[in-house]
Write a structure and sequence with these properties.
Elements lengths: L23 H13 L1 H22 L13 H21 L4 E5 L10 E5 L5 H9 L3 E5 L8 H7 L3 E3 L6 H10 L7 E3 L25 E8 L16 H9 L5 E6 L7 H5 L1 H16 L8 H12 L11 H8 L3 H14 L6 E2 L1 H7 L6 H10 L9 E2 H14 L6 H12 L6 E2 H12 L3 H11 L1 E3 L4 E4 L4 H11 L6 H10 L2 H7 L1
Length: 502
């Protein structure tokens, strides 16, 4: 049986989950901060919020957000004079007493795009205004939030729907439109996380093929993590209030040399994004992860299904590059996985795996389970990520094999005994379980494709008859196939892939 590939073990189990360790010293500091610091900082925010909203309304008046539309020169001066100061006051009110800036922002003529990572908090937006003063690439939902809308519009920000198709063309139109006066600042990860690595970068800002300057937002080591804004953690208001109760939150902005794309990267935005992530990881020392924005969606979806947080962390970017699994397909499999996982631990047993595959608990099903379970420390249970990798490896890697004889051997090895034959009982058991075939159909099929084995005095099937057997079975009984049976035929017998391909 072939050996299934294993995804690299990431340095963090799920970057979208963060639970604060509320130690007694931290609780004491937070209580004292709530008494003495929180009221003063709240007064600062009460002053800043209306001021920046009012200035944003004036500065964005007449601007409709289209690529060729821009605010007036006097409005630009107003933004440049007031926004950095108000942003600094706002950061002080949020608990960031000192902000350190390292390096130099490239001139607008040299670089028009700044890529900011890791994106960990709602405070990153305020830091962007203070440190870079650029037009931001943000999600469409922010256009309908009071105060955020006015500020973002005055910065000529670009609003994109992260799920709807065709957003790359809209972004490219904005980047190529003449008349912009601010660089575009974007978080190419597309979502917030705990900051222990760099998520896979989306290709949006790289579609224009322009040079990009990496910018690292680094929270200080003394920060207790109260300002992290993730899918499973403190909410927005709770995170904001907890940060305002701390004595000092540190914040560092680091500018690195501009990255200039090659001809191949200009032609392929996905390649550009991947190479830039690796470059940014190299210059900053922060590891590049295989997780992406979609893993956050899986985490939320799994939570709704009653699965633990770790179930959604499947390293979507690596799985998509290897097998082409889309979000809708992964969510469907997660729903089926949650149905059979009665304990809701995020790990299924052999019996639950056979139930998932719509197949009785037989030796062949257990053998397939062991093929999927790649973790030597936990071979009696199977995680959702392991199932996706095993399924993808069987249905894609083996299907691309050009050697027909190799496919025959792999399929035969999966069903045969140690003596090199497949018994009639094994054929009946496997086919009946996978395709709900009647006894009469099985009798006809076995009689047609079996031969006497004098040495063992039983009916057996040689490997050269395996392909026509499965081919006839698929042709005669395709109407009985459900999704589980299809997974069995494609995943358990790779020869079917060869027949479908031709």
């Amino acid at each position: 049986m072939p050996v299934v590939r294993r995804l690299p073990v990431p340095p963090v189990s799920n970057p979208f989950v963060h639970h604060i360790q509320w130690t007694w010293p931290l609780i004491g500091k937070t209580i004292l901060g709530a008494i003495f610091l929180f009221p003063l900082r709240l007064l600062l925010l009460i002053f800043v919020a209306p001021a920046v909203t009012f200035i944003g309304l004036i500065a964005s008046y007449g601007y409709d957000g289209e690529p060729n539309s821009h605010i007036q020169p006097w409005q630009r001066k107003l933004v440049k004079l007031t926004f950095p100061l108000l942003a600094r006051i706002g950061l002080f009110g949020l608990g960031y007493n000192w902000i350190d800036i390292e390096g130099r922002k490239a001139p607008f003529a040299e670089c028009r795009i700044l890529a900011v990572a890791p994106h960990t908090s709602w405070a990153d937006g305020v830091g962007l205004v203070f440190a870079t003063l650029g037009r931001t690439l943000t999600r469409l939902e922010n256009k309908f939030i009071f105060m955020q809308r006015e500020v973002l519009m005055s910065l000529e920000s670009i609003f994109l729907d992260r799920i709807a198709p065709g957003q790359g063309k809209i972004l490219k139109a904005h980047l190529e439109a003449p008349g912009s006066y601010l660089p575009l600042t974007a978080c190419p990860e597309g979502t917030t996380h705990c900051g222990d690595g760099l998520l896979a970068f989306k290709s949006g800002i790289f579609r224009a093929g322009l040079p990009v300057q990496p910018v690292i937002f680094e929270m200080g080591p003394r920060n207790p993590g109260v300002s992290l804004w993730v899918y499973s953690g403190l909410g927005t208001l709770a995170s904001m209030a907890a940060g305002m109760c701390q004595l000092n939150l540190t914040f560092t902005v680091k500018f690195f040399p501009v990255y200039k794309p090659s001809a191949e990267e200009k032609a392929d935005a996905n390649l550009y994004a991947k190479n830039f992530q690796l470059y940014m990881a190299g210059v900053s020392g922060i590891p590049a992860l295989g997780y992406s924005f979609e893993d956050g969606l899986y985490t939320t979806h799994g939570k709704r299904l009653g699965l633990p947080d770790l179930s959604g962390a499947v390293q979507h970017q690596l799985i998509y590059e290897a097998f082409g699994f889309k979000v809708s397909f992964v969510k469907e499999q997660m729903e089926r996985f949650a149905e059979v996982n009665s304990s809701k631990t995020g790990q299924i047993t052999e019996d639950e795996f056979c139930q998932y595959m719509c197949w009785p608990v037989v030796a062949d099903c257990k053998r397939l389970f062991q093929y999927y379970a790649t973790d030597p420390s936990r071979q009696d249970r199977l995680t959702f990520a392991e199932f996706l990798v095993g399924l993808g490896d069987l249905t894609l890697t083996l299907c691309k094999t050009q050697d027909t004889h190799q496919l025959e051997e792999e399929a035969f090895a999966m069903l045969s005994d140690d003596d090199g034959v497949i018994s009639t009982a094994s054929i009946r058991e496997s086919l009946a379980g996978a395709q709900a075939m009647s006894s009469a159909d099985l009798q006809v099929l076995v009689a047609r494709f079996t031969s006497d084995d004098p040495s063992s005095n039983r009916k057996s099937m040689p490997s050269e008859l395996l392909i026509p057997c499965w081919s006839t079975t698929l042709a005669l009984h395709s109407t009985f196939l459900d999704f589980g049976a299809f997974l069995f035929l494609v995943g358990y017998s790779p020869t079917i892939c060869l027949m479908i391909r031709f």
